[in-house]
Amino acid sequence: MNKPRCGLDSCFRHLALSQKEKLVDPKPRRARLVLDYGGGGGMASEEEEFLFGFYTEDEEDPAAAEAKEQRAKRRAEGEWGKEKVMAKYKEQQMELQLKYLESLKSSEYPIRVDRKTTKSPMRNLHNGIGGPELYTSLNVLAVKLIKCSVQFPIDVYGHVSVRDDIDAKRVFIFRRVRDNCQKINDAQGAFLSLTGPSRGIVLHSVLHIEVDLKIRSLDPESDVEIANCCLEDKVATSYSKVIRSRVAGPLCSVDLTYAPVHEAVEATFKFTLSQIKASIKRPNGSVARQWQPFNKDNKEHCEILGKITVGISGIAEGVLLYDGSSSVGEGGLIRLQRRVVAAPMWLPLYINTVSRDGKNTTTSVCPTNCGCQTFIVTAGSYELKGAIVWSSLYSSKADDVHMGIRPVKLSSQL
Fold first, then answer.
1. Which long-range contacts (CB under 8 A, 24 or more apart) does 112-119 make?
2. pLDDT of amino acid 325
3. Residue 6 and residue 36: Cα distance in Å, rounded?
4. Integer Cα distance of 125 and 400 in angstroms
5. Which end of the chain has fewer CB atoms < 10 Å from its terminal CB, N or C?
């Protein structure tokens, strides 16, 4: 087994599968960070066992089994404890983060590391000569707090962001300021309410993920840090359908779930509530159900308590666009929490809607490289008008900066 590489490379997430195994069994794999603590020639160390609770090496390997016994012996003799592990982990993460930030400042395209992306969605709506330029992207499916040793409810703020190959600036997936925290009531529902990305993510080489989350206390100086670190992942050439990475903190761990999308286009969604089926009392006393146009003044019309999720064929988890927490706006516009999804050019998207009365409806659409597509969704007592704007992720002519990106074609290798 290769020894973990130093510097930023030690942040890479490694899967315990060969390329052949990935092709044969493309199930979601749990990934881990490889922390370069210099132990075991690449085997899991005491720190990794504590932080992640699992191994990526073969447990049937005699050397791995012997190393595990030695770790258990050292723990029993008191040579290893939680405080030592977390102190070393935090020191390592701070060192890696400093190196990461320095690499951004000294890169070919130096930037202020705290800036957010200025690129908007729907930038490349026209086909260029020779057809669309297709690149690898990804969808962040979920960010969850696990193994929490805190008393719920908690108020969480901070950000989870991604840097890609377009402008190397932050594309926020989750962002809350201290005065607008997300309240998490229990460990079972400890999912962060994701609101990004604001545009399609382009991955040519390496995915950068930044996590900076805190728990609010009464005094700002007493706020508790959940995680503050940077991750790197080479997902542009990954064959895994779903990847899970974990960040360990002193009180909570953060699980990130994301799915690479190869040969992808950007899909930007819009939904409006056009009609609602209401009960109408007839002159003879009977009650009939009839479709009525949306009326913003009718409170019942403005309270959809359902969900809208977009899924990709072969992936069980979908991208949650609307969770029912916000009311309907002017003209029946549904205020989506997320509206941008990376879609594979050659596979259909499945739009699943769950209405307030529990009716479930699934509609499929076929991606195109550019243009606008409309459709109607009837979910129980509601009729929704949906619209998707398709756009290529990147164009050297349309985008104002040329990053030397080349399309990544994987279908010919499968």
1. 114/170, 115/169, 115/170, 116/161, 116/169, 116/170, 116/171, 116/172, 117/166, 117/167, 117/169, 117/170, 117/171, 117/198, 117/199, 118/167, 118/169, 119/166, 119/167, 119/199, 119/399
2. 83
3. 6
4. 15
5. C
Distance CA 162, CA 233 (A): 11
What averages of pLDDT result for each successive group of 10 residues across the chain (414 residues)?
Answer: 36 30 36 32 41 38 67 66 63 66 56 70 72 83 91 94 85 96 91 94 85 93 88 77 84 90 94 84 77 73 74 90 85 91 94 83 91 89 91 74 44 30
Q: Give the per-residue pLDDT at 191.
A: 95
Domains and CATH numbers, the chain: 265-391 (2.60.40)
CA distance 72 to 66: 10
Q: Within a 10 A sphere around the Cβ of 185, how many other Cβ atoms?
A: 10
Residue 317 contacts residue 257 (beta carbons within 8 Å):
yes
DSSP type of residue 285: S
**DSSP string for 94-153:** HHHHHHHHHHHHTSSS---TTPBP-PPSS-B-S--TTS---EEEEEEEEEEEES--SPSS
Whole-prediction pTM: 0.73
Non-local (6+) Cβ contacts of 321 within 8 A are 269, 271, 308, 309, 310, 336, 337, 338, 339, 341
**CA-closest candidate to residue 390, choices 367, 412, 406:** 367
State how far the Cα of 134 lies from the Cα of 147, in Å rounded to an integer: 39
Distance of CA 283 to the CA centre of its chain: 54
- DSSP states of 330-393 as a string? GGGBB--S--EEEEETTS-EEEEEE-TT--EEEEEE---SSEEEEEEEEETTEEEEEEEEEEBS
Cα 404 from Cα 414, distance rounded (Å):
25
Secondary structure of residue 38 in the 3-state scheme:
coil
CB neighbours of residue 326 within 10 Å = 13
